[in-house]
Design brief:
The protein has two domains: about 160 residues; about 120 residues, Immunoglobulins (Immunoglobulin-like), CATH 2.60.40. Helix content is about 15%, strand content about 45%. The protein is built from five helices and 22 strands. The strands form five sheets. Strands 5, 7, 11, 12, 14, 16, 19, 21 and 22 form a nine-stranded mixed beta sheet that branches. The longest helix has 12 residues.
Amino acid sequence: MCLLLNGCNDNTEVFTTTSLEKEVYVTLENSNITFPLNFGVGINRIEFEIVSGFEIQDEQIVIPELKGHKYSVSISEIEVPTIPKQVYLEYKNVDWKKMYTLENGGDETFEEYTKYSSEMEEGYESDEHLVSNSFYYSVLVDFDSIVENDEFHEIHIERDKKETLIYDVGEINFTNINLKNQLSVGDRGIVITTLASEGRSISPNQIGYLGSESISFESNTDAELIEVNVLNKNMSVDKVVVTSSSENSSVNKIMKDEPIQISSGSVGEINVSLIDENFAGKLDYSTFILLELKFRDTNGNVTIESFSSLVRTNRDINEVIAHERDALDFTSYYLDYVK
């Protein structure tokens, strides 16, 4: 099946729906993940998607590099998504810079934007697929036992006894990390109630902005947040915002040079925005964020709380297929339009 640019009487083909046979498309790429062995409560698993022309069982996905590391693979079949609008427009060679400028130009460009977007979207049908006769899987790999200094860069899919498909997934390793402070144990005046997070999507951008982590807390004493540290290399804290409320007060402040006061009995969130130089300009990426939060109570006692988060770009599988099969480049879509 093919979808035509201006209806069935035009010979200009927008894209072709192909039947998969031996092809396999994988969404995991450019990983930059360190799973720490000594960092509070953490997450020791990865998740990604596969579209294949043949059925895949758990045991066909292997990681040969993990010699001393036990892991388990579980896959579940899900419905292949239909082609999203940005993929259709990319096939029609849309000018994403122009689209962004017209869309955000207010009344002066509204008429031109309406005309241009209508031209680009003409013929788009939300129920079309890029591939047929395919299997779409969500894959979860759990690392059951941790061996220090283990790492891997490839995932293998064994199609049959004679052929193995090899995919470069970046770098995923397991190691002890250098803590700036010793994490607190025992009685604490402020308790982080969100210890870890996984599955948050990040959007490609020019500076490597990772978005914001929301960390919930409860305060049992008057205290102040004095420091937020990110332990990842080439990653920095962009902004910290604290929102909290108690019977006597409420707080909504951006952390700058001064500590932020938190009243006893407060509940709230610490929102930490991050920038990762390794992510800048990449379309596919995943990383494991490691944060330390330092608090001080009115008696001068300092406590250190930890938080970790696994994030990834999680792009639509149709973008991956369109890039691998037809060499479409979605860089301009993300960097010039989504921003």
